Amino acid sequence: MEELKQRIREDGVVLPGNVLKVNQFLNHQIDPDLLYRIGKEFVELFKDQKITKIVTVESSGIAPATMVGLNLHVPVVFARKKKSSTMNDNLYTADVFSYTKRVTNTISIDSKFLSADDHVLIIDDFLANGQAILGLIDICRQAQCTIVGAGVVIEKSFQEGASLIKEKGVHLESLARIASFAGDEVHFVGEEN
Ligand code: 5GP
C-alpha cells in the first residue's frame, strides 16, 4: 500500500533491536483516516472470502482490526493479555512471547465470542517472529473456527514470522513489507538498494 509506505518513510523511526517506531500514526497517536483506508485495503484483499469475525490482540492490533470490522460490519474480538475480573473461566488461551516487551503473556479470548461457525480474519499491526499471530491461530483452532487468513499492517520480512504463518497453511497479506533496516533506514521489499 503506497500511502502506508510513504507514511512509514516520513514518520518511521528505526530503533535498536530491529524495532520500527510508528507512534505518529499507528502505535500511540492514531491517524484514523489512514487507518480507515488500511481497513478498506484489507477488505479488498480478502473480498472473495466469507468473514464473520475479526480477531486481534490488545493493544496495538485493535485500531486496524476495528477499521476492518467497520468496513465489513462484523464484530471485532481482541485477545486480552491479562485476565479481567469480568471474564468467566471458559477461555481459549495461548502463550505469546512479546517481541517488543520481551515477556511471555498468556493471551485469552472468552469462549462465547468464537464458535465453530465463525470465519475469522486475524489482523495485527506488526509481524516480526510471528508469535502473536501464531497464538491467535492456536486460539482459533481451539474454537474450531475457519481461519480465512491473517492481515498485518507492517511485516518485517527479514524475520521468521511470515514463513511460520504460511507453514501453518494460513493465507497471509501484509500492506507494507520491510526487507531491512540497513543504515537505520527502512528498505521495503522490492526496493532494496
Ligand atoms: P511477533 O509476535 O510477530 O514476534 O511480534 C508482533 C508483535 O510485536 C506486534 O503485535 C507488535 O505489537 C510488536 N512488534 C513487533 N515488531 C515491532 C516493531 O518493529 N515495532 C513495533 N512498534 N511493534 C512491533
Automatic annotation (TrEMBL):
Pathway(s) the chain acts in: Purine metabolism; XMP biosynthesis via salvage pathway; XMP from xanthine: step 1/1
Chain positions recorded as 5-phospho-alpha-D-ribose 1-diphosphate binding sites: 128-132
Matching Pfam families: Pribosyltran
InterPro entries, alphabetized: PRTase-like, PRTase_dom, Pur/Pyrimidine_PRTase, Xanthine_PRibTrfase
Catalyzed reaction equations: XMP + diphosphate = xanthine + 5-phospho-alpha-D-ribose 1-diphosphate
Residues in Phosphoribosyltransferase domain copies: 42-166
GO cellular component: a single term: cytoplasm
Main location: cytoplasm
The keyword Membrane belongs to this UniProt entry's keyword annotation: no
The organism's place on the tree of life at top rank: Bacteria
Stretches of the chain forming a coiled coil according to its record: none
Cellular compartments annotated: Cytoplasm
Function: Converts the preformed base xanthine, a product of nucleic acid breakdown, to xanthosine 5'-monophosphate (XMP), so it can be reused for RNA or DNA synthesis.
Subunit record text: Homodimer.
Name this protein carries in UniProt: Xanthine phosphoribosyltransferase
Species per Swiss-Prot/TrEMBL record: Ligilactobacillus saerimneri 30a
Lineage: Bacteria, Bacillati, Bacillota, Bacilli, Lactobacillales
